[in-house]
Amino acid sequence: MLRSFVASYFLSDLVEEFVVFQVFMTTSIINSQKLDDDLGNSDLRLKDIVKSLPRECFEKNRRKAWTRVIVSVLMVCLGYYSLTITPWFLLPLAWIFTGTALTGFFVIAHDCGHRSFAKRRWVNDLVGHVFLIPLIYPFHSWRIKHNYHHTHTNKLDEDNAWHPIRPEVFEGWDKTRQSAFEVFMRKRLWWVGSIGHWAVVHFDWRKFATKDQSSIKLSVAVVVLSAAIAFPILLATTGIWGFVKFWLVPWLVYHFWMSTFTIVHHTAADVPFVATNKWNEALAQLFGTVHCDYPRWVEFLCHDINVHVPHHISTAIPSYNLRLAYNSIKANWRPYLHDECQFSWSLMKQITDQCHLYTIDVGYESFNEYYSKRYEV
């Protein structure tokens, strides 16, 4: 699935920097230098935005939280049931539904990772671990890395999830790595990026601070032990085809959505990556987070994770309050918001066709533009 060009060394070098799948959206030259300057010069503070939100946005509601749990469990069960009765020619539809429902499991764990699911930490940790088991995703390693991203959103060389590849970095690679990266983008393989992120980053506790390593080891042990029990049983009872049908393909659909959400949330032609001395936390979260509308059934199954701007204003907002918070943000801070977009194939085509390399204070360019300038020289 990853194909030969996403070799292990390629993943370890590129995915470890979290850049392979998340840095590109549309061809660009940043049109407004004023905005770039404002990212460092604005007096706007994140706490001002947080204070403007209705208090209800931050209220944890046990009924709403557990209702979403029930909905996700029912939808995943429905998805797996459909896989048992669906004729072969309709399996793609059943796979898409089941994998999207499994993405809802991740969103519940996502709330747990931000401690916005329940008031008690042990409940968040327990539910987070349980709902990431089917995805074989270590909870604490994801939680720690993801929270760092929130602290340094679109901060150049600090944001561990959105780190663009600069031309000078690209030029320093050997030919094999350059070709691999070009193929990755030109062949529109953004959807496998999340798999690389999962495989390379989240199982190695040595990549984390010493104080966090015991938690990471626990999370890794939970998913490895679960897989060691579940996979042999699945293979013994359903065979290799059953393993592919009931786990692998839905898991790949989940990673399709993970890769897609993470690209679109923070990447656009006019969203700059800013050096630490110019970075403004409030503007980075407001303008550096892109709201994208998806088909309503996707938003339902994924618990509105696409309503992402308020989540970056405060991770304390539970997923079921994101729309309320976003309405408030649009009413009070619209001039600072990035234009909304609509999920479509043309949007993803634009990402992978046009935004490949990033130049500081200039913006994104495609490989065609990059090579054209080199040939002119």
Short précis:
By secondary structure, the chain is mostly helical. The protein is 60% helix and 3% strand.
Describe this protein with a few key phrases.
4 strands, 377 residues, two-stranded parallel ribbon
Task: Describe the model.
The chain has helices at 8-14, 33-41, 46-52, 62-85, 91-113, 121-132, 139-151, 167-172, 175-186, 193-201, 213-266, 281-287, 296-301, 309-313, 322-333, 345-354, 367-376, and strands spanning 292-293, 341-342, 357-359, 363-365. With 377 residues, it is mostly helical. It has one domain. It has a two-stranded parallel ribbon. The protein has a two-stranded antiparallel sheet with strand order 3-4. A hairpin with a 3-residue loop joins strand 3 and strand 4 (363-365). Helix 4 (62-85) runs antiparallel to helix 5, helix 5 runs antiparallel to helix 6 and helix 5 (91-113) packs across helix 11. The radius of gyration is 21 Å and the shape is globular. Residues 1-41 have low confidence and may be disordered.
Q: Which H/E pattern describes the elements?
A: HHHHHHHHHHHHEHHHEHEEH
Shape: globular
Q: Helicity range of the residues?
A: 55-70%
User: Which secondary-structure class do the elements indicate?
Assistant: mainly alpha
How many helices in DSSP terms?
17
